[in-house]
Protein 1
Amino acid sequence: MTSVTQEAPSTDDAPPPMPADSWRTRLRDPGSWAEWAAPVGFVVMVLIFQALNTTFLSLGNVEAMLAASAILIVLAVGQTFAVSTGGIDLSVASNMTFSAIIFGTVFGSGAPVGFAFLGALVAGTAFGLLQGVLIGRGKITDFIVTLGGFSVASGLALVVSDGQPTTVIDRFVLEFATGSVWIIGYPVIVAFLVAAVAHVLLFHTKFGTHVLAAGGSEEAATATGISVARVKTAVHTISGVCAGIAGAMLVARIGAAEPAANTQFLLNCVAAVVLGGVALVGGRATIIGPLFGALLLTGLTNGLTLVGVSQYYQPVAVGCVVVAAAFLSRYQK
Amino acid sequence: MTQQTQTPGTSASGADDVLVRVSNLSLSFGNVRALRDVDVTLRRGEITAIVGDNGAGKSTLVRCISGVHTADEGTIEIDGEKVAFKTPEEARKAGIETVHQNLALVEDLTVWQNLFLNREITRGFGPLRVLDRGRMKRAAEEMVSSLSVNVPAVTSKVRRLSGGQRQAVSICRAAGFSDGLVIMDEPTAALGVQETARVEELIQRLRADGHAVLLISHNFDQVMRLSDQVWVMRAGRCVAGRRTAATTGEEIVALITGAQAA
Ligand SMILES: Nc1ncnc2c1ncn2[C@@H]1O[C@H](COP(=O)(O)OP(=O)(O)O)[C@@H](O)[C@H]1O
Ligand SMILES: [Mg+2]
């Protein structure tokens, strides 16, 4: 996916593709396999589960899988920006929980649901911005800042909520959580919209080019006048925006704002990004890759349940798939 | 410090052509005194060479002029006006383009993306501006073909290019956007014979266009062939300046090693 999406969008006015980029060369290069890991793995997984259990691709199950992946897609999109610069955001899931709690608190105070959503968005964004400033301006490594942020956001969620869940009963929230266009639920549409905006941002704006440049070569980016500090601040802010949106979606999905840890979301969103062929060293990324990564991980969990594998094995399977993807990416050049 | 008096062309007319004047520039990295009281001048329409052993401070001097480093002491004047670039962007805005020794290319971006890095052409309004990829690709084609550099296609990733091709892309970028001074730090070090000849042609074309070219080179033949003025650096100091026409390769070597005092 990677280089295709990066070069294809305006092929109408582009010169004919050069021979070096032909699909034949790509097929022989193991690095390309890593870029395609998520879509190819996705298809293989679908075929296997469908062969084992024909209800896997039933409309009802597909609808359920899409719904279950919506939040993960949004988080993975945010994570992709952080990873594109060669960084990581370990705080996304906690920031999502924190944002969800703010949603619940604002809603609980009697404010309209729109304000509650705004509250979640602002909370997530502000937390991401703060981390971004510490990483970009403060020059503290992102691993440490977001590891600290992970702990701070989880703690804040407990402090603000006093450890108690807030039930959110609202017609609009219910409509959003349960409504759908055909088999595509509203949350899924939101997730796809987030991914589409992110794709445009990454590949069709100055900012996106600067993100990839800063991740690919900090030295070259600096030499051409790109402020790497600003880029890092921005990507962590974007990750915060995504966490805020995900927080609101989480409230809608479970009908309550709970100060739960949600650690599996962190693991799965990093996993989706790796599966999506995004280079952990930075500089190479797509949005479609992590999107497929998120679908694949959700489908894997769903399929294993469907064919009767004990749910204790599911984390094992997810872990193996991710390490396998990381192994493939060793060949990425 | 005698180089001031040796500045060639101290004739009445000469002073007007000075584009860049560096005076008493000093810069230390911790204990390493990379530059000590360096004085050099660069003229419009001339190729000025800086020579010296490894570690003499050539790259550091160049990075001060191009805004990568800010000097501890001393001044840089452009067109008679003092400047203090805090970032390479400020230097670029003043028309100074640099081909860095490390080339400053992003391997995972394409040739055209590198050519337009931080100079992207966009279309649209306000915050809704998107990249005009088609226009940049076409402009990149023109930049590349005008220098007749041997690059496979502007849509190929820099990662796939050879060392010489990368050098060509980096030079192409500097030449395409410069308006005043082009700085080249060992531009032909990684090139084959043919590519070197092409780059030398290009350097001469820039001079003919009225640019000032600052050339760092280890190749004495090249320096003697191309330059109008040579500055010699040794251990962080600029120890001598000569008109190329009035010196010999032997003298330059003697000045570099210190066998001959300035
Ligand atoms: N960023 C830096 N940090 C520390 N020392 C440096 C740095 N850049 C250059 N130096 C030191 O400054 C001196 C001059 O280096 P440089 O300008 O690269 O020399 P040249 O280009 O003439 O070979 C060397 O001793 C080098 O080790
Ligand atoms: Mg050097």
Protein 2
Amino acid sequence: MIEHLAPEIVNGIVLGAFYAIIAIGLSLIMNLTGTINLAHGSFMTLAGYLAFTLMSRGSNFWFALAASAICTAIIGLVVERLLISPLYKRVPLYSLLLTFGLSLVFEEVFRLIWGPSTVPFSAPPELSGATQIGDVFLPTYRLFIMVALVVVMVALLVFLYRTRLGLRLRGAVQDAEMLAALGTNTQLLYMTNFGLGILLAAIAGVLAAGLLGLGPTMGNDLLMPAFITVVIGGMGSLAGSIVGGLLVGLAISITTLYLPAASEVIMYVLMAVVLLIRPRGLFGEEGIFG
Amino acid sequence: MTANANAAPFLRAKDVALSFGGVKAVAGVDLDVAEREIVAIIGPNGAGKTSFFNALSGFFYPDSGTVTLRGQDITRLRNFERIRLGMSRTFQTPSIFAELTVRENIMMGLQAQANVAFSMRGLGARGKELAGRVDELLDFVQLRSMKERQVATLSHGGQRLVEIAMSLSTSPSCVLLDEPTAGLAAADTTRIMEVVRDLHDRLGLTVIFVEHNMRFVSALANSVLCMNRGKVIARGTPAAVLSDAQVREAYLGSEEIVNV
Amino acid sequence: MMKFANVIGVSFMAVLLVLLPLLLPAVGLNISLGTTVILFALAASSVNVLLGFTGLMAFGNAAFFGVGAYGSALFIADVNANLILGLIVGTVCSTLAAAIIAPFLIRRRGIYFSLLTIAFGQVFYFIAYRWSNVTGGEDGFSISKPPIFGGSSPTLNGSSYYYFCLAIFAVLLFVLWRIMRSPFGLTLQGIAQNEARVRYLGINSDRFIFVALLLSGFVAGLGGALYSVSIAFSYPLLMDWHQSGDFVMMVILGGVGTIWGPVIGAAIYAIAQNVLSSFTPAWQIIIGGMFIFFVLVFPKGLLGLGAARRRREEEASQDPDVAVVPAGLIEGRQP
Ligand SMILES: Nc1ncnc2c1ncn2[C@@H]1O[C@H](COP(=O)(O)OP(=O)(O)OP(=O)(O)O)[C@@H](O)[C@H]1O
Ligand SMILES: [Mg+2]
């Protein structure tokens, strides 16, 4: 029993950590600027492909991870400045549609450059194989991802709670008007916020590539559970994203074990139940987005 | 006050409090309003007058305290349910349907009142009757000639009158007017004053209004409530409140108090 | 604002749509493209009911479209090969689907509403995807075109099916136009412009939004039911959020909040997709690029171009885009 369940639980936690990281980025962007970033998944895929290209040119995994995440974040900033920022003064529908168009373009570009099927993206040798913990063997790469995502999350929390820019960002996410009144440069905050969200997505994208296989739709496949994570956790809540992500991840992986056909539907059941009990999600508060 | 001493007052707010984050916008306000009374609420900017209206009318639920209308506790009723009980309000910045015509603005509330709002066909037999009501209400605010104009194209004063007519479309027994003359020129102010007087004199409504124009307040109000920093600092007849030292102090420097 | 355009406009569109089966082959296109335009226009109109008329940013209407498609196709394949009955079943299913998710949506506004429509829309996709012994899973399943009344009644093909769809579409468009001019439609417009005021007229806007969702589900489902018969096929991607996005984009391309906008948008989209995909496999880049271009440059769509200019001349100060934002704070702090 436990030897079946343990890997699935690890699996669930790993998936959940992915969802959480993606959801945090989505949620930050949504809360500050009202943009539902449908291109979030594309940025993840992009980071994966960039890392893949670097590695196939002989770079090692670690350099590829860092370089592609940074490149992707920079591309994200350019996209935010050129395409999304002109829409901030409009109804949020337009930025939603813009990122939708962007995701279509990205997906097709990926197909053109890297082909329609998955490319061989393997974890570095030092992270392959299995590690024994107690009586069970668990894939090393998954354990690594778990640790890596925890590190990323801690780093994020340190940034948000311990640096000036992070504090301002958090303040702005909670009350954009207040910050504008205090005279903080809001455009700079919007940029930082978007870049941060994309950076998180990019790191998750590279890590996910080694786990789930890297194809043109890899990021988009992770996007929907991440949206549901945001809804379950409550929009704009970091804690909500983390708890929500883990709940969704565990629900999916455990259902995969017992009732594979329901493995996606389960997250909707979870979402519906949470919304019935707490209409704004587990950690959601009354917000300006109704 | 005209209310019978042992009957429950028409509208009663008891110890109503409402805060935003750390800001106590309304910090325990009591108010009794008798039927057909005209009550003015005054106070400097940020005193919490609008927030008090919001708590009375269900725009926000108060953090504590109760609101009763004709003895019925309405504190937790949703805003549209209060309207159905006869309460009605306007907003500090006119809340209207800018892209619709004056007629459509008035019609929407009438339809709801006549229980035909869900009709996906026409108004049917009620059409004539409701059209007549639209004309009546527009006559009341003297806007009949503007009936087919888009509301966005009306002057500020015109929009305020449309909003008053809209708030009458639900056949209220009590209206809350939030600064009905804010931002208006003298001529428009006089016109609005007359309309507000008519609300009481001709329609027999209970009127509660927030106002900075003290000439208006002393000309119309039976009683006045002065708020500052979320609290009531004076209440009574217009003459008494306007000559109150605390009231004058609260206004000093923030606002020119218009003398009687 | 909700005029049935003018007589010339309507006549022009009517003549164009009636002659389309003759025009399309003349430029080397298939009649089925005309049918697709009409059925996408139905789906786009269903989005418009929420987005244009009620001011709700709906992003999940492909779910209703797909439920309609699956409902009718499954009924026709497994129960009774009868077109009319199939359409009724498909439409009932999609309206029911709307009724099931509506309670989760009606209290939410703004991007929260969008988020929930995206999320809930996708549940039907996964059901179709996973419940493969019924739905054929990822590959979907094909059907053969059913006789119109079942049994030995005639089967509609090619241009006769086009005219069948066109007739239904014309009726529906007229009904939608009537609804928008009805008391119900007026209230929806009120909700789009200033929901707080609607509620302060004693109107429970949530209920209107509920009915608008049912109406939207009904229209989308009818489009979907007709569509799966048209292509004799039903597959999960019909319900994917990408499809929802395409429907929303059609509304924006044509002109949001107008009766004809979704029709024009659907035509642009379907024809562009058809023509481009025969030229280049990378057509999605061009479509996506077109979306981005319209969002940035022509946010009011083609029909909005004229209207926007007229309004700007009348009144230079107000930004119409900003004015459409649904009021978020209506409920205040309610439990
Ligand atoms: N929705 C809100 N969110 C946050 N703070 C608010 C909100 N509404 C009011 N406040 C705060 O509550 C306090 C009282 O504001 P309110 O608008 O009630 O004052 P007022 O007496 O109506 O002033 P004015 O004469 O300027 O209209 C102010 O400090 C204001 O900033
Ligand atoms: Mg005020």
